[in-house]
Amino acid sequence: MLTVCVSSSDEDLATTGDAMLAIFGATTTSVVTTTQDIEYAGRLIRRASRWAESYVGRPLPLQVYSETLPAAGDDLLMLSRYPVVAMLRLFDSSATSAATELKSTEYRIENAEAGLLGRDAGFRWTAQQMAGETCFSLGLTPAYLPGRLTRPWLAEYVAGYRVVGSTVTCMGVSSGHDAYTTQATLPDDVVQAVAAKAAELYANPTGVLSRRVGDLAVEYASAGPGAGLAGAAALLDPYRSAA
Q1: Residue 88 · residue 173 · CB < 8 Å
Q2: Would you state the pLDDT for residue 223?
Q3: Which residue has the higher pLDDT, 6 or 230?
Q4: What is the value of pTM for the model shown?
Q5: Is the model more confident about 223 or about 161?
Q6: Long-range contacts of 229-238 (CB under 8 A, 24+ apart)
């Protein structure tokens, strides 16, 4: 189970300026002159930001999560939200009557970008076990049931990026954390992808690439200036979740 404990108020992964530059190129100042143009660019950024999060498979702004997790019996535990900015608490059980909080010295953030925690003592395997006869054990030894995993490990952590123009000041991360910063940490590729998608939406709001009526065929442009350099989706590919 995954719960958002503190949600982000940041919804846009790029600025209206990024969108207008992607749409109009270097002629932005001479083309965009109305409040309506700026407001429309803002709406396109909002739509493009939601598309980006859907494409990568997870929220990107900084948030605080509580998550119950299974373990494979090795020294790694995988969180579903990343990059991991800070671990707040880690318990060996999700049952309040039996849970023991691990000391911060007992585990570590092994790979923040992949959402991996490491522990020298390991994380016990959480597959359900059958003591009786099964097709796997014939009753000679207890058998683990493939695909039947419990989720006893409970992690509370901060994950995501500080986005462009963020007003988030805490999110559970204080100045004592190594990852603490007041600067934007959202990768430039993500910002560029969102701006490029906004340009695509501006050029073709309906998403239709071509139309044909009898012998008349019309093909719509897929993006604004610079679209041929790299597609918006291609820029986000390195950040996609595996599952």
Answers
A1: no
A2: 44
A3: 6
A4: 0.78
A5: 161
A6: 230/196, 231/196, 232/48, 232/52, 232/193, 232/194, 232/196, 232/197, 232/200, 233/55, 233/193, 235/189, 235/190, 235/192, 235/193, 235/196, 236/52, 236/55, 236/56, 236/189, 236/190, 236/193, 238/189
